[in-house]
Amino acid sequence: MALFPQSFIEDLRTRADIVQVVQEHVSLKKVGGTYKGLCPFHGEKTPSFHVNREKGFFHCFGCGVGGDVIKFVEMHERLGFMDAVRLLAQKLGLTVPESGGEANEADARDRETLLKIHEVAAAFFRQQMTEPAGARARDQLQRRELKPATVDELGLGYAPSGREVLKNWLLGQGYPLPLVIKSGLVAVRDNGQAVDRFRNRLMIPISRDTGSIIGFGVFFSCARKAQSVPPAANPSSP
Ligand SMILES: [Zn+2]
């Protein structure tokens, strides 16, 4: 994956005069359509190092190295691709776009993982609703006369009452604890213990326009104090 936008790299290649860049280090002589000089990458007495300005590349017929202007800077300055691009951009007075930087690349990966955590947590909550642990939540939904279709449509689920149920499940799925905490689903207490933030709650996922889940709201608490809802005449409820 390109770490800088491809358009920026292309712009850099177009703007950089490879002959000028190479000439800072190698004495070149114009021969026909190309420039020739002594290869800086292997010892030689007769020039076999060619630079083609129009095509924007260099090639050595002696040792076989070749590439574009960025490759030359990489090899000559012994830099990685990213640093070679930065150096070249600096020389040309171009601003390196920050949006594609390494740090942002890591941020983008984290953001993707956070979305994934929300997605699997929503599935986990929905699953819990069908488990024996979700009986009270189901009962309360019934009392509030929410139709199963509505429950499905809203994506409602149940956050179980245990302290570390969701946390342990997410860790078991391979999600790293720092990101699990960053998701807001797990909170760190004063004593340093990481515990589920939502317990014994009916959860409603909050989605973006694109449909990806970015958070959760508490639809209602299933704890005792929330049982102020008048009991419905339903003899089958536990
Ligand atoms: Zn060479």
Can you walk through the features of this model?
There is one protein chain. The chain has 238 residues and is of the alpha+beta class. The chain has nine helices and ten strands. It has a five-stranded antiparallel beta sheet. α3 crosses α4. The protein starts with 5 loop residues before the first helix and ends in a 17-residue tail after the last strand. The structure holds zinc ion. Zinc ion (ZN) binds next to loops.
Based on the model shown, name its key terms:
238 residues; alpha+beta; five-stranded antiparallel β-sheet; three-stranded antiparallel β-sheet; 9 helices; binds zinc ion
Strand order of the largest sheet: 1-2-3-4-5
Record field, number of beta strands: 10
Mean pLDDT: 86
Please give the count of helices. Answer: 9
What would you report as the Rg, rounded to the nearest angstrom? 31 Å
What is bound: which ligands? zinc ion
User: What's the SSE pattern?
Assistant: HHEEEEEHHHHHEHHEEEE
Query: Judging from the principal axes of the Cα atoms, what is the shape?
Result: rod-shaped
List the helices and strands and how they pair.
Elements: H1 6-15, H2 18-23, E1 29-31, E2 34-37, E3 49-52, E4 57-60, E5 66-68, H3 69-77, H4 81-92, H5 102-130, H6 135-143, H7 148-154, E6 157-159, H8 165-172, H9 177-182, E7 186-188, E8 194-196, E9 201-207, E10 213-221
Antiparallel strand pairs: 1-2, 2-3, 3-4, 4-5, 6-9, 7-8, 9-10
The structure holds zinc ion.
Zinc ion is lined by residues 39, 41-42, 49, 60, 62-63, 65.
